[in-house]
Amino acid sequence: MEGLGINLGYLLVQIIAFIVIYVLMTRFLYDPLSNVLRNRRTRIEKALEDSAVAANARRDAESEAEKIKAEARTEAARIVEEARGRGEDLAKSVQADAQKDAEQIRADARARAGEERDRQLADLRGQVVSIAVAMSQRLIGATLDEQRQQALVSDFFAKVPADARSLSGHVEVVSAMPLSDDEKKTVQQEVGSSDIAYSVDPSILGGLILRSQDHVVDGSVRSNLTELAGRLR
After folding, report:
1. Is the pLDDT of residue 161 over 90?
2. Which domain holds residue 179?
3. Which of the residues 87, 141, 212, 233 has the least number of beta carbons within 10 Å of its own beta carbon?
């Protein structure tokens, strides 16, 4: 070794020194640094994993939020549609009620007008009777008692045609003037039906028109005058 210029003692000292330095550096520098790097890598990996989990959670939250918003929009649309439907139903109901009320008002007005017309005709009947009696007295030159007067008037306004005595079921009786209770009773007895409705039509002038479900008997003065006019042509 000495021939090669190598000092064995010095070499051993250097080897020992290198080993000591290596051991010291490994123990006090490399291992702590490796641990620090390893821990840092672990923290970074954990942070990346947490970030990925957070990103997935965010995507899931956004997806769930979109789903909730879509459901909310659908529910809102359904509620609006139901409200619109209820509004339309309410409007139709209000309109129907208004039409019903209007029809009722018109019906009541017609009924009141009919009642007023019948009342006026009933008042007019007395005047017609007086005029007719006066004319008959002038024509025949005789005075008629009250009973005879009433009989003539009742015969003119409430005489039941012979063909009407066989009617059955519901019967409508049309007269030119409102009939008295006694006249209605007589009409019912002669017709023979218990289901009779009375109405007034001044245009028939006098007499009665009787209608059943399948038959019409026209005993009005208007009909007689029309028939007479046809014969005279």
Report:
1. no
2. 155-232
3. 233
